[in-house]
Amino acid sequence: MSAATRHPPCLRLYGILLLALASGCLDPESRQPTGPEAARGAKARPTVRRLADPLPFLTGLHVGALAATPTRMVATTVGPAAAKIVSIDEHGDVTPLPVQFDAFAEQTCFVAISPGLHPAFPEGDLFVSRGAELLRLRANGHAWESLVSLDASEGEIAGLCFDSVGAFGHALLILTDAGGVYALNDGNILAHVGNVGPGGRGPSVVYSLFEEFDGHFVVAFPANGDVLALSPEGSVARLTGWSGVSGAIATPQFLKTLGDGDATLFVALQGGRIDRFALDDVEPYVGGIVLTSLHGSGSGLALPHGAGIWLRAWSRHHGPEVAAAFVQRPAITRVAVDVHPAQPSIELGSTTPVPVAILSSISFAPNLVDGQNVLCAGASPVPFGKGPFGTFTDQNGDGELDLILYFRPADMQIAPGLATLRLGGSTFAGENFQGEDVIQVLAP
What global pTM score does this model have? Predict the structure, then answer.
């Protein structure tokens, strides 16, 4: 998809629903269910029309839990493995975590990577459970730090996820075997949020398209197929159900991919395989919740529909799905920047605007950049060419449109010599981004 044709997530979601309805894909028999009472009280019957078909990503790795950001994916292992925690790149290459983590081979340890939205949890910090204990490895750390341990009445930790929506203050949310839900905030203090009952797995926080469930903490219950939603105030309601549901994985507001690949969602199967879902396959359904399953019916997708919920079959059964993770957007998205593409240098104090390219990628569309909020080395862009804040062109020949903004060196905070120019800003959708490039600054 060209950068010029990307649309805001909410428009993409409702657009695809209207198209599907018009084409008969969402016929009355395939709606599961159609109203709020039905959504809470009816069990879903999986349809045969599946929305996505994953591709195998890697095999031979038995996974307990997954977490992913654009720069890395982390998995905890179950059974014999080279390490209890491993890193996985976009090519499926597996590397043991440099800092050893000690746990029983058969123990399921849950994992979360901080997106950096909470000041107490810098971006890239890794959080892993070991029984009732929660440990942290800082982004550049060399040793594990024990943070908290649950009260014996709560049993062990049964799930971890960060609140990237903000409904729970961007805290790290902890699900326990007994059903307790806690928020970890400043000072490593556990704040009790509520209780969803025992047996829950695969939690996440729902984004802002689900009407009354906006910002809720959702949990899957494999034993009875229920998906329950916990509000920030502590009230619990049944959101929907799906046969053998093992995880309720909310699609992020801003889809990202792992590294330079095209995959935005990864699902681990009990047999030691991980599947991947491409961003283009998931993009029409931003705002939905992927319902992974242990059963042969395959996984489902819950989509908001007015005051009710549409349930659709997501992908066919490849094996019991034991863990899943979307690539989570960090607090600041890293973008590629090219300062003065045609020349290797700029002149200090020059008032002649120089071009700076913000390059597109599979998960970043420069046409959404708010030019008035961009700074390059402290300088604001100046009007140039056809548009008030730049032009669009395929700067690097990849077939996608890049944004070219213009800045005066006289406005930049730079000095003669080799300089790293940092550019930052935000999109109209509120996504913060940052990039940098090195260029020679010449004395006048």
Answer: 0.81
